[in-house]
Amino acid sequence: MPLFRPLAAASLLAFAPIGTAVAQEAIFDGASTEGWTDRNGEPTKWVAKEGTLTREQKVGDVWTAGRFGDFRLTLEFKTDGNSGVFIRTDNPRNPVQTGIEIQVNRPGGPNRHSVGALYDLVAPDKDASVDGWNRLEVTARGPQITVVLNGETVSEMDLDRWTEAGKNPDGSKNKFKTALRDFGREGHIGFQDHGANVAYRNITVEEL
């Protein structure tokens, strides 16, 4: 049974019967923050502005009200600095330990903390980012996670290879207190407030 649970602001495709293939679907309508919350499930203080979901001051991360399992997320971002896209986050109050982050930042790297990285886990093969708007695609299917930045596959991982807490398969350390193999395979999608102004637009999810 698909784990995708549509948001209140989703399109009419949300009413397809369970088990029916669902096409790519906007989860941000470009005009309101309906369906998006703060870490406590309260209305977010991010703003809908000129078709973007925007962080303009320090207000904390923003989260989908719904939870997603196997999916393809596509979006565009423009940032002044550090942000991130969290996926399959079980507890928005503790995203660092219950979710996986795809790093959003200015061009730089590549390393495990640069744009396009699976943060602290996998460095991107290259820096495929540009100044201005970037297109990001994240596919999560079972243990497989793939990150495509501006049309180029930059990082991939198989969660089942992460068998030890605090350690990557190559022996390097990571921040996680739980082996990634044991992470839940569904959760919230979120955008990080790490102190920099950032905007996201054209945010869609395709259930897999």
- Portion in beta strands: 25-35%
- Enumerate how many helices there are, as a single number: 1
User: How many distinct folded domains?
Assistant: 1
Q: What kind of sheet is the major sheet?
A: 8 strands, antiparallel
* Amino- and carboxy-terminal Cα gap: 11 Å
Helical content class: under 10%
Précis, in short:
With 208 residues, the protein is mainly beta.
Question: How would you explain this protein's 3D organization?
Answer:
- There is one protein chain.
- The chain is built from one helix and 13 strands; from the N terminus they run βββββββαββββββ.
- The N terminus is likely disordered.
- The chain is mainly beta and 208 residues long.
- It is globular and about 45 Å long.
- Helix content is 2%, strand content 34%.
- The longest helix has 4 residues.
- It has one domain: Exo-inulinase, domain 1 (Jelly Rolls).
- Strands 1, 3, 4, 6, 9, 10, 11 and 13 form an eight-stranded antiparallel beta sheet that branches.
